[in-house]
Write a structure and sequence with these properties.
The complex is a heterodimer of chains A (475) and B (278). By secondary structure, chain A is an alpha/beta fold. In chain A, 33% of the residues lie in helices and 15% in strands. Chain B is globular, with a radius of gyration of 18 Å. Classes of the chains: A alpha/beta (475), B alpha/beta (278).
C-alpha cells in the first residue's frame, strides 16, 4: 500500500487531566482495533528499517506492524515476543521517542509511526483475547542458572534462558516479583495486573520464581554455585539504595525517599489504607525534588493520594530535565507546579519532628559541567520558603551493597557498581554475570531488558564450553 | 507460606511463635532480624530473631501486641501460616571474648538480647544480665537468661517481681563496682536504650544498642529506617541494627517511631470494629 502524503498519527485517547489526576487508572486508554490498523497503515515498511536499529532488543518492528495492518493482532504480538517477552510493559514505559520512533523515516517531515502505542495495543489484545501462546518446551540441557532479581533485566534473561532449555531459578528479595515494575512504576503508568500477567507468562515458560529470597543473606552466591549446583548466576539486582539531598532536616517525619514513597504506594498499596495495612502520609502540600521519571511518578502519585498542591523542584531548567517529554507533559497537564532553577537548602521542623516547610534558593545556569549540561549556580540571597508537609527527594539511587559486599572476589568500580563486560555481562568472578542498573547505574526498563537478553546469550555460550574470558572487561 | 510450629503466650500481651523457615534458621546469627507480612493486605514488619533451631528449621519470634498487625498476628494459632517471612537480615552481633560484659533487656527486648547473651557466654565471656519490665506479668525467659548468664538481675518498675528499679540502677551499680566490664549490650524501648547510654557514658565501656526503627523492604532500598549515628544518616536495616549507643540520636529515633501514630490508631479502630469489639 502506498501513500503519497503520510497521514497524521492516530493519537491514543487519554483520560482528561483533571479527572485522571484523582484516580489511579491508566492515563492513555488504548487503541481500538480500527485505530491500530489505521496507524499501522502509516508504516512505509522500509526495505532497511531504521526503527529496528533504535530498539535495544531489535524487535522486527515493520513485520509486526504489517501484521497489525492486516488485522492479525495476535500474530503481531507473537512476532514481538520473538525478541521481547514483555511487550505490554515496553509498549507503556519505553522511551520510544528517543529509540525506535526517533529513527522512523516519517519523523523527518511529520510524526513517526506510533510504534509504542501499537506494541501496547497488540500485547493488550493478545492478553485480553486469551491468546497467550506458550512456545514448545525445548529439550533440557541439564544446566542450571540462578537469576538474582526479578526486575526487567532478570525477567528477560530468564525468559531467554528457559527457551534455550536450561533450568532457571529466579530469586526475588521482595514478596512480589517484578522489581521496579511492581514497586516503582505507578499503577496509572503500568497497571500491576499487566506485570503479574507477564510474570505468569515467564512462569508458564518453566521459570521457577522464588520470592522472599534475599541472596547474600539467605544464600551466598558461592552457596548457590557450590552447594546448589548452579552452573551460572546472573546478578540483576538493580541500583536500589536511595540517594538523599544531604541537607539539614532531611530525617524529619514527612520526608520520604522516592523509593520509599513509591514502594509504599505501589507495592504495599498504601493508597488503600486502612484496607491495606501499610500507611503513607497523604500530604496536602508536597514537594518533589528532582527532574527524572521517578520524580514525575512521585509527584503524580502524591497528587492522586489527594494533595492540594504538588511542587516539582528542579535545580536546572526544563530543557535539562532527564524525564520523558510525555511524562513532563502529563505532569504539567495534571496541575503539578514546576519550580525550575530552584534548589532546596534545608527542611524546617514544626517543633514536633515533622517537616513544615522547605527552604529553597534560586539558581542560574553557568558554564557546562562534565555532563555537558549547564551547571546550576545558586543566587545568593534568593532564599525563600515553601510550606510543605511531605517532601520527596527523587535524585537518583546508588549501588546497594547488601549482596555485593558478600562476594569478595567480585570487582566493583569506584561508585560501587559491578565491573562487567558490556557485551557479555561477564564479571571478574567465573560463572557470574551481571547487567542492568547494578552495572550501569540507574537507567531504563528497556536497557535492563536489553542487558538481560545479551547476558542470556552469553550464558548460553558459556554453558557450552565453560570458558571464562574477561579480556573484554574495561573499567 | 510459613507455618507456625508453636505458639506460646508469655503474658497477656507478649506472644512467642516458632515459625518454620528452614533457610532462615540455617543462616541466622545472634543480632539478626527478619521481616514478616501476614497476608496479602498486610504490612511488612521487622522482628528480631529471638532464637533459631537449625535441626527443626524454625526461628523464634517474640512480639508484643501493640498495633493492628501484632494483634492480628496474635490471633494466629499453631498450624496457621504467615504469607511472607524474609531473612535473616541485618548485621550479626559482634561476638568475641571481651572478658566481662553486661546484657540489658527491657520488656519485649528481653527476647532479642537472649541469643546475644548466649553467644557471648559461649565465646567465653562472663555475662551479667539485667532484665526488666513494667510489671511481673511482662517478665519472661528468666530461666533462659539465667542459663545464658553468669549472673542475672530481674527488675520491675512497680516492684511486683525482683527488685523494684529500672534497669539503669543495677547497671550503674555494676559499672561503679567493677571496672573490668568491657561492653554493655542493651535492647529494649528507645527510651530505655537512651537512658542506658546516659548511664554508661561515664564509664570506659562500649555500649551497643539494637535499633527498632520503622522499615519497609529492610534491604536498604527505601530508607524508612534511617537514623543518625555520630551525625551521619545510617540505615538501621543494612548498616545495623546494632550501633554504638553513645553516637545514636535517640530523640530522632523516637520521633521517627511516632511518625504513623494517627494511622496506627485508625488501623486499630478498624480492626476492633471488624472483630466486633468497640
Amino acid at each position: 500500500m502506498e501513500y503519497k502524503k503520510p497521514r497524521n498519527r492516530v493519537n491514543m485517547k487519554e483520560q482528561a487531566p483533571l479527572i485522571r489526576a484523582r484516580n489511579l487508572l491508566e492515563v492513555p486508554l488504548g487503541y481500538t482495533p480500527e485505530e491500530a490498523m489505521e496507524e499501522a497503515g502509516r508504516c512505509l515498511n522500509c526495505a532497511r528499517p531504521a526503527c529496528r536499529t533504535g530498539c535495544p532488543v531489535a524487535i522486527d518492528i515493520p513485520a509486526f506492524i504489517k501484521l497489525v495492518h492486516e488485522g492479525k493482532f495476535i500474530e503481531a504480538a507473537w512476532k514481538i515476543k520473538e525478541e521481547n517477552a514483555m511487550p505490554a510493559v515496553c509498549g507503556r514505559v519505553c522511551p520510544q521517542e528517543i529509540q525506535c520512533e526517533s529513527h522512523c523515516i516519517l519523523g523527518k517531515k511529520g510524526e513517526p509511526v506510533a510504534i509504542g502505542n501499537l506494541e501496547r495495543f497488540v500485547a493488550d489484545f493478545e492478553r485480553e483475547a486469551d491468546g497467550l501462546r506458550i512456545p514448545e518446551q525445548p529439550s533440557h540441557t541439564g544446566r542450571k542458572v540462578a537469576v538474582i532479581g526479578s526486575g526487567p533485566g532478570g525477567l528477560s534473561c530468564s525468559a531467554d534462558l528457559i527457551k534455550s532449555g536450561h533450568q532457571v531459578t529466579l530469586f526475588e528479595a521482595l514478596h512480589k516479583p517484578g522489581g521496579v515494575l511492581i514497586y516503582g512504576i505507578p499503577e496509572f503508568r503500568l497497571p500491576k495486573i499487566i506485570v503479574e500477567k507477564e510474570v505468569d507468562y515467564i512462569k508458564k515458560l518453566g521459570v521457577e520464581v522464588i520470592m522472599n529470597a534475599v541472596i547474600g543473606k539467605m544464600y551466598t552466591l558461592d552457596e548457590l554455585i557450590n552447594d546448589h549446583g548452579y552452573d551460572a548466576c546472573f546478578i540483576a539486582t538493580g541500583a536500589g539504595l536511595p540517594a538523599f539531598l544531604g541537607i539539614p532536616g532531611e530525617n524529619l517525619n514527612g520526608i520520604y525517599s522516592a523509593n520509599e514513597f513509591l514502594t509504599r504506594a505501589n507495592l504495599m498499596k498504601a493508597y488503600l489504607f486502612p484496607e491495606y495495612d501499610t500507611p503513607i502520609k497523604k500530604g496536602k502540600r508536597v514537594a518533589v525534588f528532582g527532574g527524572g521519571n521517578v520524580a514525575m511518578d512521585s509527584a503524580r502519585v502524591a497528587l492522586r493520594l489527594g494533595a492540594e498542591k504538588v511542587y516539582l523542584v528542579y535545580r536546572r531548567s526544563e530543557a535539562e530535565m532527564p524525564a520523558r517529554k510525555a511524562e513532563i507533559h502529563h505532569a504539567h497537564q495534571e496541575g503539578i507546579e514546576f519550580m525550575f532553577l530552584t534548589n532546596p537548602t534545608r527542611f524546617i521542623d514544626d517543633g514536633k519532628g515533622n517537616v513544615c516547610a522547605v527552604e529553597c534558593i534560586r539558581m542560574e545556569l553557568g558554564e557546562p559541567d562534565a555532563s555537558g549540561r549547564r551547571r546550576p549556580v545558586p543566587l545568593n540571597g534568593s532564599e525563600f520558603r515553601i510550606e510543605i508537609d511531605v517532601g520527596i527527594p527523587a535524585i537518583g539511587t546508588r549501588s546497594n551493597p547488601l549482596l555485593l559486599s558478600t562476594i569478595p572476589d567480585l570487582r566493583l568500580n569506584k561508585r560501587g557498581y559491578i565491573i562487567a563486560d558490556h557485551e557479555t555481562g561477564m564479571t571478574s568472578k567465573p560463572g557470574v554475570f551481571a547487567g542492568g542498573d547494578i552495572v550501569t547505574g540507574a537507567a531504563t526498563v528497556i536497557l535492563a531488558m536489553g542487558a538481560g537478553r545479551k547476558v542470556a546469550k552469553a550464558i548460553n555460550e558459556y554453558l557450552k564450553w565453560k570458558h571464562w574470558d574477561t579480556s573484554g572487561i574495561t573499567v | 507460606m510459613f507455618r507456625i510450629a508453636k505458639k506460646k503466650a508469655l503474658s497477656d500481651a507478649v506472644i512467642l511463635f516458632e515459625i518454620e523457615a528452614k533457610e532462615i534458621a540455617r543462616k541466622a546469627k545472634a543480632g539478626n532480624f527478619f521481616v514478616l507480612k501476614i497476608h496479602e493486605q498486610g504490612e511488612r514488619i521487622p522482628l528480631t530473631i529471638a532464637d533459631f533451631d537449625q535441626e527443626r528449621g524454625t526461628i523464634t519470634a517474640v512480639f508484643q501486641k501493640v498495633g493492628k498487625t501484632t494483634h492480628q498476628l496474635a490471633m494466629l494459632n499453631e498450624g496457621d501460616s504467615i504469607s511472607d517471612v524474609i531473612g535473616p537480615l541485618g548485621k550479626n552481633s559482634h561476638i568475641e571474648n571481651f572478658g566481662k560484659v553486661i546484657c540489658v533487656g527491657g520488656g519485649v527486648g528481653i527476647a532479642p538480647v537472649y541469643p546475644i547473651a548466649r553467644a557471648l557466654k559461649e565465646a567465653g565471656n562472663t555475662v551479667i544480665s539485667i532484665i526488666g519490665a513494667r510489671t511481673r506479668e511482662l517478665i519472661f525467659w528468666e530461666d533462659r537468661m539465667r542459663i545464658a548468664s553468669d549472673k542475672l538481675i530481674v527488675v520491675t518498675d512497680d516492684g511486683s517481681y525482683g527488685r523494684k528499679a529500672v534497669v539503669t540502677v543495677p547497671l550503674d551499680e555494676f559499672l561503679r563496682e567493677d571496672t573490668g566490664i568491657k561492653r554493655v549490650i542493651a535492647i529494649g524501648p528507645a527510651i530505655m536504650m537512651k537512658f542506658v547510654c546516659r548511664t554508661t557514658e561515664k564509664y570506659p565501656v562500649e555500649t551497643i544498642v539494637s535499633l527498632n526503627s520503622i522499615m519497609v523492604d529492610a534491604t536498604g532500598m527505601c530508607g524508612a529506617c534511617r537514623i543518625e549515628v555520630g551525625g551521619e544518616t545510617r540505615f538501621a536495616c543494612v548498616d545495623g541494627p546494632e550501633f554504638d549507643g553513645q553516637k545514636v540520636d535517640f530523640d530522632l529515633l523516637m520521633a521517627r517511631q511516632r511518625m504513623y501514630l494517627d494511622e496506627e490508631k485508625e488501623a486499630m479502630e478498624c480492626h476492633r470494629k471488624k472483630m466486633g469489639g468497640n
